[in-house]
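Page 42, continued from yesterday. The earlier attempt failed because a stray header line got pasted into the input along with the sequence. Redoing it now with the clean sequence only.
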Amino acid sequence: MKTTAKIITIGNSKGIRIPKQALIESGITVDVELETGPNELIIRSKKSIREGWEDAYAQMAQLGEDQLLLGSEPASDWDNHEWQW
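This time it went through. Structure tokens are written below.
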């Protein structure tokens, strides 16, 4: 979809009204990232900080790379005696 929009004044800032259909087609719902370049402004959905982690963990499990680094034994004597579960 290609459309045009006018830049409007919003308080001390400027903004644009994004047509509903453009939002529906883009899938943008809440937060966005803005990227600027010469004569362009790119608006993208903001990516989650942990985006892709679930797939990475699943792949690690499939490859057997999701083992505890400390093994099954507690790391110290403190863990055995002081820690309360």
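Notes: The two ends are 56 Å apart (CA to CA).
Reminder to self: strip header lines before submitting.
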